[in-house]
Amino acid sequence: MLEYENSLKSITSGKCLTVYLEGDIDHHNARIVRSKIDTKLYIQRPGELVLDLSRVNFMDSSGLGLILGRYTKAVELGILFKVANPSPQIRKILDLAGTERLIKIENAPMSAKRV
């Protein structure tokens, strides 16, 4: 299943929901994106949630809050959580916040064929 929305698209493959975020994640759009991701989590109940940040140009503290909040929600629902492909700029923000102590961050391309 492939869905296109304003600043994100998602692919569900097997038990993995991969959400591709795009553009800026800031206080203007973080709430809407958060709501869309949470709706997908509750409806689809995937075994794994991957947030692909390869097309994110800018992220402020609201974006960091979005990621940490989705991690918390995933843990509550028993869903594995990963962040994939952050740009060097976004990776620096994640590193400064110490996110990798909680969240697995992968830089390799994510396979569309996940089970």
Features of this protein?
six-stranded mixed sheet, alpha/beta, 115 residues, disordered C terminus, disordered N terminus
Can you walk through the features of this model?
The chain has a six-stranded mixed β-sheet, with helices on both faces. Strand 3 (16-25), helix 1 and strand 4 form a beta-alpha-beta unit. Helices cover 36% and strands 34% of the residues. The protein contains three helices and six strands. The chain is globular and about 30 Å long. The protein has 115 residues and is an alpha/beta fold.
Short description, anyone?
The chain is of the alpha/beta class. The protein has three helices and six strands, in the order βββαβαβαβ.
Number of strands: 6
Q: Give the CA-CA distance, first to last residue.
A: 14 Å
Specify the number of helices.
3
Structural category: alpha/beta
Q: Segments where pLDDT lies below 50 for 5+ residues?
A: 1-5, 110-115
Our estimate of the beta-strand percent is: 25-35%
Task: Assign an overall shape.
Answer: globular
What's the Cα radius of gyration?
A: 13 Å
Strand order of the largest sheet: 1-2-3-4-5-6
Mean pLDDT across the residues is 87
Main sheet specs: 6 strands, mixed
Q: SSE order in H/E notation?
A: EEEHEHEHE
Helix content: 25-40%
